[in-house]
């Protein structure tokens, strides 16, 4: 079924500034600046600077997939607004039963090193992007805290760590060793 118009409205807080140039959206807030380019030809993004400070994402003469694109673009822009105003926190728990997993963050190389995973002698190292901060005071408590304004890089990094530290072809009820995502939060600690 075709709809004539599908639109979504985002209310922008007063402490966030938005600039649109061609199909690129720039958001600027307390925690910094984020930008994202949307190459969809049918989607129009309009920013109204008035008392309501609203951003409108709309698409004319569309089908089911293009109305889904409108909702996806709306959620991406909403996450950008939350990221530059408050920030995101992911909490990763380090779980082991026999071999203690040790995690070390090397700040000058921007890498996170995981050793003694499943009793192996190899060192798994992960490059931490510059937009992600690692809270190092909780490494002794067997948890890793990742802080960022960009939810996409935060999600990709946490999933890479979790997938690399999971055991394959074993019973997950018995072999529980690994690093797992425990919680996702929105905060203003950045």
TrEMBL record:
A single cellular component GO annotation: cytosolic large ribosomal subunit
GO biological process: cytoplasmic translation
Keywords for this protein: Nucleomorph, Ribonucleoprotein, Ribosomal protein
Gene3D superfamilies assigned to the protein according to its UniProt record, in alphabetical order: Ribosomal protein L6, alpha-beta domain (3.90.930.12)
Transmembrane feature ranges: none
Ranges where the Large ribosomal subunit protein uL6 alpha-beta domain occurs: 12-87
Single annotated GO MF: rRNA binding
Pfam families in the record: Ribosomal_L6
Highest taxon in the source lineage: Eukaryota
PANTHER family tied to this protein: 60S RIBOSOMAL PROTEIN L9, 60S/50S RIBOSOMAL PROTEIN L6/L9
Family assignment from sequence similarity: Belongs to the universal ribosomal protein uL6 family.
Protein name according to UniProt: Ribosomal protein L9
Taxonomic placement: Eukaryota, Sar, Rhizaria, Cercozoa, Chlorarachniophyceae
